Amino acid sequence: MAPTTLVGQVTSTTPNGRNVDLNGYPLRITELIAQLPGAAFVTRQSVQTPAAVRKTKKAIRKAFEIQAQKKGTSFVEVVSTCSSGWKLSPVASNKWMEENMFPQYPLGDLKDTGRADPDLYKVKG
After folding, report:
1. Which domain holds residue 83?
2. Which of 2, 3, 9, 67 would suit a FRET pair with 104, their CA atoms being 20 to 30 Å apart?
């Protein structure tokens, strides 16, 4: 079970599903961080496709640049599967994540007040 495991979700350590009374509710850390003063860039990305991986890499780079420019704290949450823990194939895990996790943990920028220099994110080479 992870902090983001959904209520009722079966994992190798929660074979009967996440139980709120026993395990508590899933944590929405990214939403909490976005509310903090000093948080400049807060985003949630995923890695289920090559395009998503590229977007996640770009977000991580942006987070580092905003930090380096001292514009505030950056936080990048990466939603990914756990095929072995979920006891699903990689393809089934990706489908399950898209259908079940993304509605609970929507992807995208939750806060972007740092606005690092856009030229830093152009593909070079």
Report:
1. 28-121
2. 67
